């Protein structure tokens, strides 16, 4: 049976306002997720999810699952998190490190690929496991983001005066506690050439409770400019809870951008992406990038071919004001920036 409203009530604990409790209560088994969505009768779906979820297990917070449609195995949010059999099929050009990250790591936990900015892996953990993720096979153990290793990265940053922007990423950088984050921001504030901090996080979308008073006050009093880049792929992800979390960021005066990945059967339509841009703008967020899928092993079923992607993007330009159109880009190893995708002239 398909119902339009959000599914079953959330378990006790997810209403306490304590995001760590919500994270602890997140859904971690295909059984629990499919039962919540009244899809437990779909045996093949369940069997595949069990089979394919071994190395990169299912993980989804309740607030994200509550935005999925009950009884709908094709739900675009469900598709992003449910392991499926297609993950077992991988052509040769889909690898474990498609974007050449391991070659760009001068010290553990720091990626320095582009001029003027470096990316610090603050934590290997996330609040959700996105099946299309290019980091699903990334050896986080080698980029071990323990505090001891941050100091090596901090030394590297301090020694390179060309680095004016540090990107906190992961995994998800907002998965660390406010204390840890505040410690890190204070250390970065002591490096005079770093004038901007960018935070790349999916937590405001999948666990909006994370945007608590403590976090807002840390961000507000930070000396360097802070830019938040969230990650939403579909307009349904911007529910009332996410909307108010994003507006809290804006109230503190931060610039908030969004990046999405173009995903087959999730958001590969003009209408869907128009609605996403509108929902983002309504929340005070500007669309930044629309990424082509990275060719990561086990993600091929999400790939949208280049011609389709360019057609969708061109149509977006016809339908929306320029500032609401994200840049369509691909990440290619060895390039000095993300590469814009367009049709050959
Ligand atoms: C994507 C990325 C960045 C950020 O690129 P921008 O174009 O500045 O958004 C920085 N470092 C690494 C390693 C990246 O993958
Ligand atoms: S939140 Fe980001 S890093 Fe984590 S699994 Fe999803 S896409 Fe990957």
The helix/strand series, from N terminus to C terminus, equals HHHHHEEHEHEHHEHEHEHEE
Derived structural class: alpha/beta
Q: Which residues sit in consecutive blocks of at least 5 with pLDDT less than 50?
A: 1-6, 8-17
Number of strands: 9
Order of strands in the sheet with most strands: 1-2-3-4-5-6-7-8-9
What amount of the residues lies in strands? 5-15%
Shape: globular
The rounded distance between the terminal residues' Cα atoms is: 49 Å
Percentage of residues in helical conformation: 25-40%
How many distinct helices? 12
* Ligands bound, unique: pyridoxal-5'-phosphate, iron/sulfur cluster
Main sheet summary: 9 strands, mixed
| Averaged pLDDT | 91
What is the topological layout?
Elements: H1 19-24, H2 30-36, H3 43-52, H4 62-65, H5 76-81, E1 110-114, E2 117-123, H6 147-159, E3 165-170, H7 178-189, E4 196-201, H8 203-206, H9 213-221, E5 225-230, H10 240-251, E6 255-261, H11 270-282, E7 286-291, H12 306-319, E8 327-330, E9 339-340
Parallel strand pairs: 2-3, 3-4, 4-5, 5-6, 6-7, 7-8
Antiparallel strand pairs: 1-2, 8-9
Residues 126, 128-130, 133, 135, 170-172, 202, 231 line the site of iron/sulfur cluster.
């Amino acid at each position: 049976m398909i119902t339009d409203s959000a599914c079953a009530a959330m378990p006790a604990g997810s209403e306490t306002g304590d995001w760590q409790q919500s994270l602890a209560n997140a859904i971690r088994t295909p059984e629990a997720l499919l039962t919540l969505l009244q899809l437990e009768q779909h045996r093949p779906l369940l069997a595949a999810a069990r089979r394919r979820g071994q190395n990169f297990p299912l993980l989804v917070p309740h607030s994200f699952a509550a935005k999925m449609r009950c009884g709908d195995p094709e739900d675009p949010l469900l598709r992003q998190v449910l392991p499926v059999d297609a993950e077992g099929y991988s052509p040769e050009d889909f690898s474990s490190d498609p974007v050449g990250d391991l070659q760009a790591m001068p010290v553990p936990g720091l990626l320095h690929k582009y001029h003027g900015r470096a990316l610090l892996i603050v934590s290997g953990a996330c609040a959700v496991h996105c099946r299309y993720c290019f980091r699903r096979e990334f050896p986080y153990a080698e980029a071990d983001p323990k505090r001891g290793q941050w100091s090596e990265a901090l030394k590297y940053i301090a020694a390179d005066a060309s680095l004016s922007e540090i990107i906190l990423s992961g995994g998800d950088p907002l998965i660390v506690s406010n204390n840890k984050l505040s410690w890190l921001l204070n250390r970065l504030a002591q490096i005079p050439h770093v004038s901007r901090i960018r935070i790349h996080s999916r937590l405001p979308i999948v666990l909006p409770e994370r945007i608590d008073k403590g976090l807002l006050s840390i961000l507000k009093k930070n000396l360097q400019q802070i830019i938040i880049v969230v990650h939403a792929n579909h307009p349904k992800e911007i529910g009332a809870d996410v909307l108010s979390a994003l507006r809290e960021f804006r109230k503190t005066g931060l610039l908030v951008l969004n990046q999405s990945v173009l995903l087959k059967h999730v958001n590969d339509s003009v209408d869907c992406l128009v609605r996403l841009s509108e929902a983002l703008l309504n929340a005070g967020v500007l669309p930044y990038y629309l990424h082509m899928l990275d060719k990561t092993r086990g993600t091929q079923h999400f790939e949208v071919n280049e011609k389709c992607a360019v057609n969708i993007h061109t149509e977006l330009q016809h339908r929306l004001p320029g500032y609401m159109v994200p840049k369509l880009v691909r990440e290619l190893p060895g390039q000095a920036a993300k590469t814009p995708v367009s049709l050959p002239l």
